[in-house]
Design brief:
single chain, about 375 residues, mainly alpha, Growth Hormone, Chain: A, disordered N terminus
Length: about 375
């Protein structure tokens, strides 16, 4: 019996319930990271005081990246657990399913940006430094009970129910699908760099380099995230019909071609309207890549090792390239003194992802391309 298409029974979730469960869970997973990233200038002063403000900022964004180091361990443990025991068990222990990942992650960033922008706008800088920065973190307590309740009602998909689980999914993955893991890792690079560069680092850049107020940078960022939240699912749907890789390659090329002129535009026009325009364009282009990316990566693996394969490829890439993107971008400016230097990292990351996309497009015949 198909638990999704059959009549509703206790403990069985319809597709909309599955999407809601995944989205709420992903929002909870990413919300605290988002708030920390958006409030980095304040946290740098409070948690990492130093005579040199740049040193404080580097320590703060470095701590943000360190928070991602446990993700690969979780991918190894819970990915194998999901492939052997069922995804429902893994979902009750972690919030890591890939479906609608883009929308859930964008939703978390949007909530975090709105919460951070609101508190920074309604309290004084002294109050924000004293206690206001803690307020957005309290909101995650509201999402936890809802997320756990919804996730308990999600069952394994029919493809997994029919699949005989491998006794050792990680050994099978390493023996027969290591190339797919490498390609999934490469595809994820620009997905995660786009997320943490455009939506976490750019507000920080606008505040520290362009000298715009924190509330301004976060409210314009919220508008961009809302746009991404709407465009990413549409891009995913379009990729189902017209092919994933052509859309993703076009988006990656657009980022390579536009990122440096875009930063030059910001430097020449350091005001809110220019920032909003830059962030809106960035959101649309990023969404065109991020929307199809989860399905493209999942299609690299058969159902018996899909959780392990996707989890390892995604989380190792996020840890190495995404979580440390704000640190690398901040460090490039500190090292070179060039306010355009962060764009070098984005272009390098796009190059790696484009290579992975082209290799996959050439050799993989499964799924829409």
């Amino acid at each position: 019996m198909n638990p999704i298409n059959s009549s509703p029974l206790k403990g069985h979730a319809r597709p909309r319930h599955v999407l809601l469960a995944v989205t709420v869970g992903n929002m909870l997973e990413w919300y605290d990271f988002a708030v920390y990233g958006f409030l980095t200038p304040v946290i740098a002063k409070i948690m990492f005081p130093a005579a040199d403000p740049t040193a404080s900022l580097l320590l703060s964004v470095g701590a943000f990246g360190v928070g991602f180091l446990t993700r690969p361990v979780g991918a190894l443990v819970f990915g194998a657990l999901a492939d052997r025991k069922g995804r429902k068990l893994a979902l009750l222990l972690t919030f890591g399913l890939m479906s609608w990942q883009a929308a859930g992650q964008a939703g978390a960033l949007l909530l975090g940006a709105l919460a951070s922008a609101t508190i920074s706008a309604i309290v004084s800088p002294e109050q924000l430094n004293a206690w206001g920065w803690r307020v957005p973190f309290f909101a995650s307590a509201v999402i936890v009970p809802l997320g756990l309740y919804i996730r308990q009602r999600v069952d394994d998909p029919e493809a997994f129910v029919r699949q005989s689980p491998a006794s050792s999914p990680l050994k099978l993955l390493w023996r027969t699908h290591s190339t797919a893991v490498a390609r999934g890792f490469g595809i994820t690079i620009i997905w995660t760099v786009s997320t943490y560069f455009f939506f976490v680092y750019v507000p920080l850049y606008a505040h520290t380099v362009l000298k715009l107020s924190m509330s301004t940078t976060l409210f314009t960022n919220s508008l961009a995230l809302a746009l991404m939240l709407g465009v990413a699912p549409v891009a995913g749907h379009l990729s189902d019909r017209f092919g994933r890789y052509s859309l993703m390659i076009a988006a990656a090329l657009a980022i390579v071609l536009l990122i440096r002129p875009g930063f030059g535009f910001l430097l020449n026009h350091p005001h809110a309207a220019a920032l909003a325009a830059f962030q809106a364009v960035s959101a649309v282009i990023a969404a065109l890549f991020i929307g199809p990316a989860p399905a493209a990566i999942a299609e690299l693996f058969p159902s018996g090792v899909r959780s392990s394969g996707v989890g390892i490829a995604y989380n190792f890439s996020v840890t190495l390239f995404g979580g440390f993107a704000p640190l690398i971008a901040t460090g490039l400016i500190a090292r070179t003194g060039n306010p355009l230097s962060p764009t070098w990292y984005v272009m390098f990351s796009c190059g790696l992802s484009l290579l992975a996309l082209l290799l996959t497009l050439r050799t993989n015949s499964r799924g829409p391309y």
